[in-house]
Design a protein that fits this description.
- Helices cover about 65% and strands about 0% of the residues.
- With about 220 residues, it is mainly alpha-helical.
- The longest helix has 19 residues, at about 105-120.
- The protein is globular.
């Protein structure tokens, strides 16, 4: 069963909830290697997302995602705004005009999100950034699609990939952003951007499961 307008809206609301629930945790992760504001900034950004999408009763999935991206760019401070904003806008572009999304559309949206992040941040795998969570999520989702997995199972595979990618940032040397200024002192810390990326992808899996979208 494909994801509908209502499902995308539900995802965005749940993403806002999860970010709010984890804002202190994300900020704690950001404290030793960043500006100690990732959780606060992301929470503010997703509140802006909900305000923007509220009136969009008839918008297609692409427009919802692009609107979310615009809200994030304008409301999230630091590097997170442009990076997450680009991710959501490119995800929306990848599914422009789509009233419903099947698992291949979701894969295209995640691929667009990664393209947006790389385009904006110039990060490579292994640089200790959100790329290190999103890329393995895409790889896991590609494999699930090849094996004809249903939406919920495929997205859980993606979330599991993102979770492992998040954990894999701990021993990495940061090569991008504020953390890169610390050199070897960045080793041993989990990247906050990879963490928030995992949390958002897990929300997608949870909503798909709750909606009964093909186990």
């Amino acid at each position: 069963m494909p994801a509908t307008h209502e499902d995308v809206v539900t995802c965005l609301h749940r993403m806002a909830d999860v970010i709010e629930e984890n804002r202190r945790y994300l900020t704690k992760l950001d404290s030793p290697i960043g500006d100690a504001d990732h959780g606060v900034n992301m929470n503010r950004g997703f509140k802006a997302v909900l305000n923007k999408i509220g009136p969009m009763e008839d918008a297609d999935a692409g427009n919802l995602l692009k609107t979310a991206g615009t809200a994030l760019v304008s409301s999230v401070g630091g590097a997170g705004g442009p990076l997450y904003g680009s991710a959501f806008m490119q995800a929306g572009t990848a599914v422009a005009g789509k009233e419903t999304l099947d698992v291949k559309d979701v894969l295209a949206a995640l691929e667009g999100a990664l393209e947006g992040v790389v385009m904006r941040g110039k990060a490579n795998p292994g640089d200790k950034t959100m790329v290190d969570a999103i890329r393995p999520a895409i790889q896991a989702l590609e494999s699930a699609v090849e094996h004809s997995a249903g939406m919920a199972d495929a997205l859980q595979e993606a979330a599991d990939g993102a979770k492992q990618g998040m954990k894999d940032t701990i021993p990495m040397l940061a090569k991008k952003g504020r953390a890169s200024y610390l050199g070897e002192r960045s080793i041993g810390h989990q990247d906050p951007g990879a963490t928030s990326s995992y949390l958002l992808i897990q929300v997608m899996a949870d909503v798909a499961r709750e909606k009964g979208q093909g186990a």
